[in-house]
């Protein structure tokens, strides 16, 4: 379990071997040298010893979502301060902005008030977001500028506390939206993909060649949200079909009937292939593909071998799936 740290203690012992033991005792098992240096330089600005800089969680990673925060501090009023650490003077400011917006989404589920900052230790600049989610930069290179900053004002009056195990606060079910159970939230875009989901989606979106692709992602890993978000993105400029191996559930039928999503069960799909009445699609996603029969896999390979379609098998790739797809086809894996 990750325990909160005293940033002053870290800064004053940064050159000492004891700092490794201190961080290990807190459960901080991986922290880059430049992040430690960033903490040390940040603390150096706080010349007033009355600002304790205690109870900061370092490198907290949310379970199952792979979302990490450099520094987090909480108080009894359910407020949170988040500080991200950068160490390149020319670090892309748009990346800073997007990270803070992303952090705001996750923290808004567990705190009543959120203060978001990024500290670039090379340029000595503090970034924060405006109410319109625009990036605002503050030079803190001099004592006068630092003491006049909103960043200092907030930290000087923030009475942080030990929150115990943060995993009990950041419950996974607060963030995992299902396109089937929370269809309205999905259609409204009221969700974010995890880093793992984003990596897999980017791999799919960057494929430009037609062909037959297998994507190995077991159920329970946010597969449905990743798949349906990918289809939503692609449908803006492409024709896209989802084929479900099994019967359609109520949400799938609703998406098809009320929102014009192209979703059909596997038996209808195979009938259209057999009768050669399937319309052309730029993308076809076959969900729960691990349940395909060998006969169906062979039919798919034969039918789409010469088609200008990118066809993806989505599911826990089975040995049957692997051995029935020629080595020339691409495989994408997750995890």
Structure, briefly:
With 335 residues, the protein is α/β, with parallel strands linked by helices. The chain has helices spanning 7-12, 18-26, 33-45, 93-107, 143-147, 150-156, 183-188, 195-205, 223-234, 250-259, 266-274, 294-304, 319-323, and strands at 57-61, 68-75, 79-86, 113-120, 125-129, 135-139, 160-161, 211-216, 240-244, 263-265, 283-287, 310-315, 330-333.
List keywords for this structure.
13 helices; 335 residues; alpha/beta; single chain; Rossmann fold; seven-stranded mixed β-sheet; tt1808, chain A
What does this structure look like?
With 335 residues, the protein is of the alpha/beta class. It has two domains: 7-173, tt1808, chain A; 183-333, 3-Layer(aba) Sandwich (Rossmann fold), CATH 3.40.50.300. It is built from 13 helices and 13 strands. Strands 1, 2, 3, 4, 5, 6 and 7 form a seven-stranded mixed β-sheet that branches. The longest helix is centred in the N-terminal third of the chain and has 15 residues, at 93-107. 30% of the residues are buried.
Order of helices and strands: HHHEEEHEEEHHEHHEHEHEHEHEHE
For the secondary structure, the number of strands is: 13
- CATH C-level class of the largest domain is Alpha Beta
Quote the beta fraction: 15-25%
- The total domain count is 2
The CATH architecture of the largest domain can be named as Alpha-Beta Complex
SSE-based structural type: alpha/beta
Radius of gyration, whole Å: 25 Å
CATH fold group of the largest domain: tt1808, chain A
N- and C-termini, Cα separation: 23 Å
Q: Estimate percent helicity.
A: 25-40%
Biggest β-sheet strands, sense, barrel? 7 strands, mixed
The DSSP helix count reads 13
Shape: elongated
Enumerate the spans where pLDDT stays under 50 for 5 or more consecutive residues: 326-335
Protein name: Schlafen group 3-like DNA/RNA helicase domain-containing protein
Organism: Leuconostoc suionicum
């Amino acid at each position: 379990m990750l325990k909160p740290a005293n940033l002053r203690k870290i800064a004053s012992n940064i050159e000492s071997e004891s700092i490794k033991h201190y961080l290990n005792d807190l459960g901080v098992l991986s922290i880059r040298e430049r992040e430690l240096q960033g903490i040390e330089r940040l603390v150096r600005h706080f010349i007033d010893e009355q600002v304790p800089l205690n109870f900061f969680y370092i490198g907290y990673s949310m379970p199952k979502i792979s979302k990490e925060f450099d520094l987090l501090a909480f108080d009894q009023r359910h407020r949170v301060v988040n500080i991200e650490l950068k160490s390149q003077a020319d670090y892309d400011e748009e990346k800073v902005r997007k990270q803070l917006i992303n952090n705001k989404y996750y923290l808004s589920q567990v705190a009543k008030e959120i203060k978001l900052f990024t500290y670039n230790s090379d340029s000595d600049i503090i970034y924060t977001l405006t109410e319109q989610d625009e990036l605002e930069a503050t030079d803190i290179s001099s004592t006068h500028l630092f003491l006049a900053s909103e960043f200092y004002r907030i930290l000087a009056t923030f009475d942080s506390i030990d929150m115990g195990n943060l995993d009990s606060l950041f419950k996974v079910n607060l963030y995992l939206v299902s396109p089937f159970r929370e269809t309205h939230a999905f259609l409204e875009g009221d969700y974010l993909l995890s880093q793992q989901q984003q990596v897999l989606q980017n791999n799919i979106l960057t494929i430009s060649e037609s062909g037959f692709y297998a994507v190995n992602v077991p159920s329970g890993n946010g597969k449905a949200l990743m798949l349906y978000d990918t289809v939503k993105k692609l449908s803006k400029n492409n024709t896209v079909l989802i084929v479900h191996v099994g019967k359609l559930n109520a949400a799938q039928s609703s998406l098809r009937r009320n929102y014009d999503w192209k979703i059909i069960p596997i038996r209808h799909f195979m009938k259209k292939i057999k009768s050669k009445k399937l319309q052309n699609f730029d993308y076809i996603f076959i969900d729960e593909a691990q349940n395909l029969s060998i006969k169906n896999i062979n039919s798919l390979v034969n039918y789409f071998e010469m088609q200008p379609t990118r066809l993806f098998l989505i599911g826990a790739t089975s040995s049957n799936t692997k051995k029935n797809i020629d080595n020339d086809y691409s495989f994408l894996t997750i995890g």
